[in-house]
Amino acid sequence: MKTIIHWFRRDLRVSDNVALSEAAKRAETVIPLFIFEDAFRTGPDVGAARLAFLLQSVESLRKNLAELGHTLVVRCGKSEEILPKFARQVGAQAVFANKRYEPYTQRRDERITQALLDVGVGFELFKDAVVWEENEILNLSGKPYTVFTPYSKAWKAKPIPAPKARIQNLKFKIQNFPCDPLPQSADECGHPLTQTIPAGGERAALELLRKFMAGPVYDYGTARNFPALDGGSNLSPHLRAGTIGIRTILAELKKAREKAAPAQVASCDVFLNELIWREFYAQVLHNFPHVTKGAFRPEYDALKWSDNQEHFAAWCEGRTGYPIVDAAMRCLNATGTMHNRLRMIVAMFLTKDLLIHWQWGERYFMKQLVDGDMAANNGGWQWSAGTGTDAAPYFRIFNPVSQAEKFDAGGNFVRQWIPELKDFPDDLIHQPWENPLMLSKSKYAPRVVLHEEQRGQCLAMFKAVKGS
Question: Which tens digits make up the pLDDT trace of 74-90?
Fold first, then answer.
């Protein structure tokens, strides 16, 4: 083809980018385009941290393309209106983009396909964000997996494709296309940023990957559970924004695993499993789209959840009286990030101690998280609530004190985020109510509920539905 528009979406990078590579192969000229959608300003789950990270990443992409001699064209508005108009303006025969998997984006892509067809322009979508799509790994009955372990075994049995090469010789039509001004901050979009977020962009992502694979990956199996340690890869915001390719991560993981000592191989495999969980939840979202509106197991839509607004506000603000829960929520509110172990603890506390609907927490996370991803967020919340894909879910109830004593034994993480408790000794830091006088002087919040009582109520709530 003579001219192809590459529409950047959640693939804000010039390396390991499937649609961009295909466009470079098949067109005489390629026009890189980014559309700042109206939904970025007004969508129901728009979060300031995620929006700010996106803007950083687009600016990084613009600079990377400029170094290669290319200009990123920016438009603001609705993609289904902008794309046909821009395609006619530049004489493009096709628009290439990488696939999105959320139900609302797929509905939008159907509308865009028709809008482009109406002006004689093709619309091609490519697999990029995942290694295996929703119908590429099926069970022996030809149906999608609903349990992780057999899915992961089938996933690992397939060969992993190599990363796409970094674009070097992207042929670009030298023409002064006008660009719309991109917002400089989330504040300009009506979403004031109050969090200190990690750096966005492809270079930042590749540097994080390099550092992680140079050493921390070998301790990941154990270190990832301790929130006071920086034991994770910190790549999840970049995977969500597409500032790094999944094939790039897997290729570097393979190299690291080949150099690992026997005792370190297991940690590499644990990290691989976490990447597979991401794809598992993506295919669950596609194949079972009802999870966006209710429980994966529909019978659990009948659960009688609490609507206690004061309890929910205490959870959101980090003042439930349970230090590990409150420290995690304060960290989220300040940084837009939360350690994976802590996500499970706070989600289970909301649903199984406060007995509040998992969807309340799901929405709050999407507002706050810099790496908020619909599929992973929904899957994680339903797993914790006991309404999801897990085989024996509802009676798994974390004790916030024992979890804290196991994974933050010295209270380092709690003291970092709850200064009221800085003077408490290690044996009281996770249950300060054991010293009422000291607790009163600290001005730390009293417990909103008693875990030992709520556990029984939670089990009764689930049993009432299971027995009906």
Answer: 999 999 999 999 999 99
